[in-house]
Design goal:
With 160 residues, this protein is of the alpha/beta class. It has a domain of 70 residues: Ribosomal Protein L15, Chain: K, domain 2, CATH 3.100.10.10. The protein has 4 helices and 6 strands, in the order H-E-E-H-E-E-E-H-E-H. The strands form 2 sheets. A 3-stranded parallel β-sheet has the order 1-3-5. Strands 2-4-6 form a 3-stranded parallel β-sheet. It is elongated, with a radius of gyration of 34 Å. The two termini are 45 Å apart.
């Protein structure tokens, strides 16, 4: 018995020759059925044609406007920073505290509530009013780029 991977096959099939008589198997109506628009020659209809009914393509409105592909910044409120009294706040410390979903996306600190503790902030974005509040509380703001996720491929190569 021959194996499936050892079959001798030809990847190209011969074109089906229709309308060549009854014996050929595709004679008479040549696979077009009987009568109607689809059986006639010169039938060129759009793929969306629905027999005269308004097509779905025309019924659904075009997508208008602009959709940004940029991921929005993760928001951290000013009053959350009171938990980091006297410490340095960065993406990783905010992630460990549960204030942001991932440390590898942009973080922006915006004003809400009071900041009573002195903190040093190392994040990508801080609103003007939040900067004023942090400096007023005795802290400092350093704008830093978003940390990149380290490739796991280099770690695997080092393990081997």
């Amino acid at each position: 018995m021959t194996k499936y991977n050892e079959l001798q096959t030809n990847p190209t099939k011969n074109k089906k020759r229709v309308g060549r008589g009854i014996a050929a198997g595709q004679g008479k109506t040549a696979g077009r059925g009987t009568k109607g628009q689809g059986s006639r020659t010169g039938k060129k209809l759009a793929p969306t044609f629905q027999g005269g009914q308004r097509t779905l393509v025309r019924a659904v409105p075009k997508a208008r406007g602009f959709k940004s592909l940029r991921t929005p910044a993760q928001v951290v409120y000013l009053d959350h920073l009171n938990a980091f009294a006297g410490k340095t706040v960065d993406n990783f410390s905010l992630f460990e505290a549960g204030y942001i979903a991932t440390p590898f996306h942009t973080v922006k600190i915006i004003t809400r509530g009071e900041l009573t503790e002195k903190v040093t902030v190392h994040v990508a974005g801080v609103s003007k009013s939040a900067v004023e509040a942090i400096v007023k509380a005795g802290g400092a703001v350093v704008k830093t780029p978003v940390p990149l996720k380290q490739s796991t491929k280099t770690a695997e190569a080092a393990d081997k």
